[in-house]
Amino acid sequence: MTFAQFIGSGNTGVIGLLNTVVAPVIFALSFAAFVWGVLNYFILHGGEEGKREEGRQFVLWGIIGMAVLFSVWGFVNILLSTLGIAPGA
Fold it and tell me: Which pLDDT score is estimated for 47?
């Protein structure tokens, strides 16, 4: 196995693992945290200020998680395109 095969592209190798398994799982967890925070803030604990604050923190960290994921994912794809290892190729 060569280094290029190990790194892979699109759905193969390390890049394939990151693009098809790791990134979607992280995105799903951050989206779930966001939704849980919205539910806590608006629906489940509308009258309890302490629980609303907890819900606000979940919303904040969910948004931060999604923003970090998208920026790192974009940076990796720019780096791969620059190196000529375009994802999906």
Answer: 80
Q: Which two tokens stand for residue 40?
A: 């806590």
For the chain, domain boundaries: 35-76
* pTM for this predicted structure: 0.68
DSSP string, 25-74: HHHHHHHHHHHHHHIIIIIITSS-HHHHHHHHHHHHHHHHHHHHHHHHHH
End-to-end CA distance of the chain: 19
Tell the residue number behind the tokens 């000529």, with chain if given. 84
Average pLDDT for 70-75:
84
User: Which pLDDT belongs to residue 3?
Assistant: 65
Spatial separation of the C-alpha atoms in residues 19 and 21, rounded to whole Å: 6
